[in-house]
Amino acid sequence: MKYAPVEGMLCCSSAGRDRKRYLLIVKVIDSEYVYVADGDIRRIENPKKKKLKHLRLTPKTDAALQEKLLKGMNVTDSDIRKAIAVLTEKGDGITEEQ
Prior knowledge:
Helix content is 21%, strand content 33%. It is α+β, with helices and mostly antiparallel strands. The chain has one domain (9-59, 69-96): SH3 type barrels. It has a 6-stranded antiparallel β-sheet. The longest helix is centred in the C-terminal third of the chain and has 12 residues, at 77-88. The radius of gyration is 12 Å and the shape is globular. The chain starts with 8 loop residues before the first strand and ends with a strand.
């Protein structure tokens, strides 16, 4: 099943140096590209432009972080790291995108 990319969505890189790393989509550019960050190596101040075909999208999103990103509020690297930690394990705060 293919998912539409949205801000705050968890994804896993399938190509490049960051292969097998979990990332969060911080901005959707168009139907082919997104900006991603992990809050550790790839910080929010300098997100990576990545092709969607090089990402495995998941249905998991962080609702609070998604709201911040969509409203243009300040998002920190620690917010991104915490969201990735919660979304990669079976924890609270996970919403399934339909």
